[in-house]
Amino acid sequence: MSPESSIAHYRITGKLGEGGMGAVYRATDTKLNREVAIKVLPPAFAEDAARMQRFEREAQVLASLNHPNIAAIYGIEAGAIVMELVEGEDLKGPVPVESAIAYARQIAAALEAAHEKGIIHRDLKPANIKVTPDDTVKLLDFGLAKASEQSAAPSAVSPTMSPTLSLAMTQAGMILGTAAYMSPEQARGKPVDKRTDIWAFGVVLFEMLTGRRPFQGDGISETLASVLKDTPSMDALPPTTPPRLARLIERCLDRDLKTRLRDIGEARIAIAGIEAGAPDREVTTVPAPPLTRRSALSRALPWAVAGVLGVVALWLWAPWRTVPAPPETRTEIVTPATDQPASFALSPDGQRIVFTASTDGASRLWLRPLATTTAQPLPGTEGASAPFWAPDGRAIGFFAGNALKRLDLGGGAPRTLAPAVAGRGGTWNADGVIVFAPSLNNPLMRVSATGGTAVAVTTLGQRQRGHHAPYFLPDGRRFLFYVQDAPDMAGIYLGALDGRASTRLTPADGSGAYLPAGWLLWVRAGALVAQRLDGTKAALTGETVTVAEGVPVDIALSASAVSVAATGLVAYRTGGGSQRQLTWVDRPGTPRGTIGDPDATLDAPRVSPDGRRVVVGRNVLGNADLWLLDGARARRFTFDPATDARAIWSPDGARIVFRSHRSGSGDLYQKLASGAGVEEPLLASDHTKTAYSWSADGRFLLYSVLDLKGDADLWVVPMAGDRTPSVFLKTPFREAYGAFSPDSRWVAYQSNESGRPEVYVRPFFPPGAAGTAAGAAGAQWQVSTAGGAFPAWRPDGKELYYLNPAGVMMAAPITVSGATLEPGAPVVLFPTRIVGGGVDGQQGRQYDVAPDGRFLINTELDSAAAPITLIQNWNPAVKK
Fold first, then answer.
1. Residue 304 pLDDT
2. For helices 220-229 and 172-179, what crossing angle results, to 10°?
3. Distance CA 661, CA 244 (A)
4. CB 523 within 8 A of CB 587
5. Quick one: pLDDT band at residue 387, thresholds 50, 70, 90?
6. Cα separation of 509 and 694, whole Å?
7. What is the pTM of this model?
8. What residues act catalytically?
């Protein structure tokens, strides 16, 4: 097959190799724009029904495996398997002992995952093991694997049916290499089980350490004879090899199936103990041979007497003996800078951590094994926030692109599971149920971990704004979640999948986490504290214990900067994360001064019509209100205990309309900009509303209505008369961030009708005016061309600004001729470093345009992320 030929939508770009099961090619997936490997059967094999069946079985076997150390399969097309392209070198020895230990642990973990699914590799060898540039091990070619089954009688299996020999007949070198890794039972053609992989694992580990195979010969027969009779000497191992590792290899290479290491998981645990420096001990206990009745009795009597004496001695000695608890240790993990200090999560087994970080201006997820000092970015997670783990540690859930997504660590691109316009956290139980917060103002939803229709699992109480940051308890039925609302209602609640009434456990600044030992951890007044949780009574008991000081809460996500593993490991981060600064920027992107002080909670600034004042959201001591900035002066504008946010000015600058949750739903209120008078209700309903724009003639207000599914529509309300709202634009898609043009003739907005957010313009007809229906049904122009969000007009209406997906400020010229509007080609103005990023930003429009044409940008300041601290063996009962 030549380069540039294709299989389905995969374009072949080169040949990688060839073996008994066919040729392997590098190819490009033209749909997803990624590199893949494709294994193609040669024509002679394609005509053999038995081999074709084996080929299809390989696809099925690979597809059932999902593990970070096993090369993933993406699909099967026209006699070809499409697989993960693993860049790197074949595993070759000798390697340093430390590297061999790290590689062996990963190989054992991969085999353990396969064995748990009843799959045996049967062809484990260095040629089927790749080491990527970041020292990640990947097992390849499970084509010789078979599902574990009851062994047939030895007589039913012929040596000629050994799959390794029958599938590689054309390449003697490959046969020789494969034969050297066969277990004795496999070499004899007998039935095999997972212990044949354990034998091959021992051979590979020996070769990694020494640089040579333990079983050798001049030909196949001599090599197989060596496998059947030779015993490798552990003296050949490097002198720095830990004795436990040498004993492990001996156990793996035991020809007696009854005494060979029985479970590769035991090898993984032993190797992890070697890495961690655990005390020296045997890997497993070899069962003693069965006793005859007489010998059993003769041996049992003296041991029984000794046992009684031992119990007495232990009883006498125990009161004076105390077993010291393991010491608490705290270590730090340094991460790249991040604007989401609370977006991190420990894996359930406490072996890895995933976190959000930015290194090239783009925020994405990074994964770090705690046994290493390096982290790797996870492709396809740009704009991600609030990661959480699958219970088996093989997948990660997160939010990006207005959706809840899932990334399988075994390979493949992230998959969308459900809409989530501004996700506020998720949790995953062992039954494959994900509970998540789809947006700021919704109850919690539940959805299958494979995707589907999401349904509400909690009910918003009276005056409750939204339910955020769920966290399953170990039973997988109950979960913690956070209610962000007035101080008398905000805090951590306990809910359940069966929909029973939720119980408030404690006031808190943000979300909580649960330690399996029975402790609830949460943040209170900047301190990470813990208290016993009585699950049967749904109440906290005992004294509150301080775990750490200076732990922040991400107010946007309601997330405390803490995570725990099922093993009891605790992770937290101190510090306030990135600060924000309102910065004036000119058209070329040059900073021209600031207004107000830096603050980590600044939100959605809006410039007054005269350009002299700014109204901005700000959170002080857990209370979100609006503040007015006038030069160097800052004063609080709203005072209600509930959240007040997202304000706009009237055209004359005399009034400010904003969203408030004081009545439970997000309703619209207005207040004199001078601060005098009361805050007057403007619009009230069961759905959350956000005001976006006020027409220049002062007659109409444009706002959005968000339903429980996370969809939004644009509405308009007259500011005089009976104030009866009417729909401006209602579609099956999400329309938001509407903006009147300076002459009030047009409305710019963003919509995801194309599958991603883009900026559009429609004509505006006052409610009831002629042409309203025609205008709503057609007359639409797309302004952005490659993704766009958060539109704003130039003061003279001749340009429309917006952000592209990378957070770059764009400008599109606008030409109007009669009833027709013509958008020009967008041009790049400047990168913004804006809060929330570009299209995937969840925090709304974080910039505004002043009357003189300057931009006011809510800018993230450079700040190094505080390290993540790990606590091992935390025990409040032990006095420090």
1. 45
2. 0
3. 62
4. no
5. very high
6. 35
7. 0.53
8. 123
